[in-house]
Amino acid sequence: MFFLWTSNGSQSIFYDTDHFGFDCLHYFSTESEFSEIVKYCIRPKNDTNSIMIEFFNISSDDYLTLDQLYRLNVTSHEILMWSSSIDLAEKYEYYLSQPIQSNLSNEKFFNCTQPWFGSRCQYSLEINEDVLVWNSFEMTSTDNIFHRTCYILLECDRGGALMCLDWREICDGRIDCLNGGVDENQCFNLEINECNDDEYRCHYGLCIPKTFLEMDFHEAQCLDRSDYFADRVCEGFYFNFNLFECEEFICRSDEGKFSCGDGQCVEDYGQCENNRQLLLAQSISIRGNLSYNCWISIVCLTKIIDKIENILCDEFIQSSEIIEQLKSCKFPLQFPVIPVLYDHVKFLYHPKEIENINVTLSLKPDYICYDEQLCDFLTPTFRHENLTRMHPIPRC
Fold first, then answer.
1. Mean pLDDT, to the nearest integer, of 300-318?
2. pLDDT for 197-230, tens place per residue?
3. pTM of the model
4. Greater pLDDT, 330 or 220
5. Nearest to 302 by CA among 276, 340, 274
6. Is the dihedral of CA 15, 19, 22, 26 positive or negative?
7. Cα–Cα–Cα angle for 259, 261, 263, rounded to 5 degrees
8. Is the separation of the CB atoms in 197 and 222 below 8 Å?
């Protein structure tokens, strides 16, 4: 375990090891609003694949035994200040308490000179440690979609295999699962939850001790950050200092934002730093039983995504082909081919004058299709496929 702390140009270095994750860098930044230590460790691929580190030839002049340190009146504090192992400093402190009875007298101590550190002075940082950490996380900012963890304890139908349910999407006020909205079931119990007098009620219903509000925390204690009244760094500059600062937070249900699956919350159709919104767009843009030409044209005209099947929608829209391909569709046309809300609300397209469609604007559905029994308060216009009723969308 290696601990690195920086503040106003000063630094303290502590070094330690454990069995599998060893020779770790522990990064802590005083400039961040989060009190978090991030570990960077060398680890074997598995417990049977141990990593052997070859050292340079070390002579007896390169180290001192604990007994020699004792005779030189060296303290355990000085051991730490010399970039030594925490384990070794503890062993030396124990040795000082009983130097005669202890069998640690021949334990070796390697006195490293800057910039070297480690159990045998085998490491050095060739560049500034802040730059090193920053560059490593800059590499994670990419146009590729990050595949995040999936919550598997709920059977959730997202309408395709591309998108899975993230734990932050449970009880976030948005129905994400098409199979009965299971991700929002029983969430009312949280909403009606009452807290004790000595507790603070988070917006989504969780109770935390009020003493947390009085303590000098620099991060929220509520998962939805409703107890934290400072600027939300997670939503502004996402890659602040390390990837883990925002991961333990959820989006507030009353703000109706889309969860990026890592703690970042964006407006609908906003861009996540990890591009998770593209997974959602791809999930609702699946072809289903549409013809290829019809599918490509409707996807681009609705402007759900910018590119499909290696076709750039902007270029396709500017061509004269898109209207001709749209004519190949069989109307009325349901798109997306999966429900857009709950497990029964769908969009239906039935443009009257295809030639006059303004391709520079997003093509809007002509009707909203819904289950008649579940929406009996609406007056339907006509029946479609004997399953749902249609309600016309008002035109401006």
1. 86
2. 999 998 888 898 988 877 766 677 888 888 876 5
3. 0.59
4. 330
5. 340
6. negative
7. 75
8. no
Strand 63-65 and strand 108-110: the pairing is antiparallel
Q: Which amino acid is it at 374?
A: L
208, with CB counted inside 10 A (0-12, 13-18, 19+), is middle
When pLDDT is cut at 50, 70 and 90, the band that residue 394 belongs to is very low
Beta bridge partners of 298: none
Q: What is the Cα–Cα distance from 264 to 274, expressed in whole angstroms?
A: 9
pLDDT in tens, 263-307: 788 887 788 877 888 888 888 888 888 999 999 999 999 988 888
Residue 117 DSSP code: E
SS3 73: coil
96-119 residue pLDDT tens? 888 777 788 888 888 777 777 777
d(CA 8, CA 252): 36
Token pair 């919350």 in the structure block, residue: 265
Q: Which two tokens stand for residue 253?
A: 């249900």
User: What is d(CA 177, CA 313) in angstroms, rounded to the nearest whole number?
Assistant: 28
325 three-class SS:
helix
- Residue 7 near residue 16 (C-beta atoms within 8 A): no
Spell out the long-range contacts of 19-22 with Cβ–Cβ below 8 A and sequence spacing 24 or more.
20/44, 20/47
Q: Output the pLDDT for position 395.
A: 38
Residue range 354-366, pLDDT digits in tens: 888 888 888 889 8
Q: How many CB atoms lie within 10 A of CB 130?
A: 14
Q: How far apart are the first and last CA of the chain?
A: 64
Residues 6+ apart with CB under 8 A from 63: 108, 109, 110, 111
* Residue among 227, 214, 233, 216 at smallest CA distance from 31: 233
